[in-house]
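User: structure tokens for this one?
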Amino acid sequence: MASDILTEPPSRQLYTPEERARRDGTVWTTVQGVLAPLQFVVFLVSAALVLRFMATGYGYDAATVSIIAKTVILLTIMVTGAIWEKVVFGQYLFAPAFFWEDVFSFAVIALHLTYVWSLLAGWPHDQQMWIALAAYGAYVVNAAQFLWKLRMARLDAEGRP
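Assistant:
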């Protein structure tokens, strides 16, 4: 009886066969496959520009443009990702398979938009950049979540735990 309480329920596969077919058959999977690495490259460039500004005080305009570009790509990938979830899982966001990734994505978006607010409100440049760095730290965690899910999907497709 006590061992039943400690027994974990069987894990659900990431995709049912029907969901996998929809995932593989939609253009939105390709869109996500293009936008995700693009966002990562923009992130790397932007992070370097922000860190350069923080270290030297130079390059504020370049860092700002790069953060705005990163934010636009982030918002684009979130909208297209919601469409992808609707096609694959039947709901725009918070499908059980990607619930926590979606929750954390909203935190990432909130931090990026806080940066935009700080920019528009004219906050001191160093404060803006600290917000951008916090947004980027959250983005790294969120990207790791999605990479983990991608790995789990590949293992699942191979029939491995």
